């Protein structure tokens, strides 16, 4: 498992979340000024400097349920509100979209180009907000500094860590089903056509060499696909041509998006308890992350700018039905976090927390095992 995976996972899922929210804000005819405020508030919170510094520290991935809690906090960083069913659907769409992108990356290194595609689109959302734009550009610099010198083997380890994180998720998404890139069981269809990875040749030719390294014979074979050479390598510069389209906004054309639990996912639900429940060390890390996210202040609607509820379903009835039919094992609600009793680890955690300024102290901490959401509310 790679300890350099979390920033890529967080930023790409966050990018997908912004794509979906932007599409739903337009679909529900939310006034432009309110929609811009929601996206600006979320992006500003997402790219908070202290939060990014902590995110880029080498660390293991959090569990699906723990990470879902972070995005719940992030989605409510403005005047917009989502109920449980819509938040579940939002997270399902985010995770399945990024899983598809990781699966189809031509090279392991291209997961960085997917991330840059998300950041490029995020810049488009905040082009009139130079302060937030500077935050995003600083994160781009951190990505380049952290991942620019990694070897192909290290990127392969990152890709494998991401695929392990997504391996039990088989949620059907209407866009993928209509485009025939996903089967009815929720598994993706890998293409046998298109450009090959940059730096490789189109399959179909076998070369044989002698002991001196001289080519002595060639043989051709039918590969059964329709491959072409890659036109050029995607740019890893700040404002370059990424070439790769994975990670761009698939909701730019307005069309309804539905999610359905596949039979495989329902059967696996009871088998995924271990991956859903955070381990003690991950819980400590998440507690620190939650404290850093104390800046994600949930704004209470007031004054001339009241809040509003966003529905990720076509109707309220569909939303209510989705809440009733979702398997309980896959419902992301409150996470009970029991801090480990390892004294040394607790002292190290307290020392790290002490480096960050916390404006408001919790009113009362009943135990080290306070639930994460309650802990966030105390910040």
Automatic annotation (TrEMBL):
One Pfam match: Oscp1
Q: Which GO terms describe its cellular component?
A: cytoplasm; plasma membrane
Name the InterPro entries on file. OSCP1
Listed name of the protein: Protein OSCP1 isoform X2
Supply the source organism's classification: Eukaryota, Metazoa, Chordata, Craniata, Vertebrata
Q: Which gene encodes it?
A: OSCP1
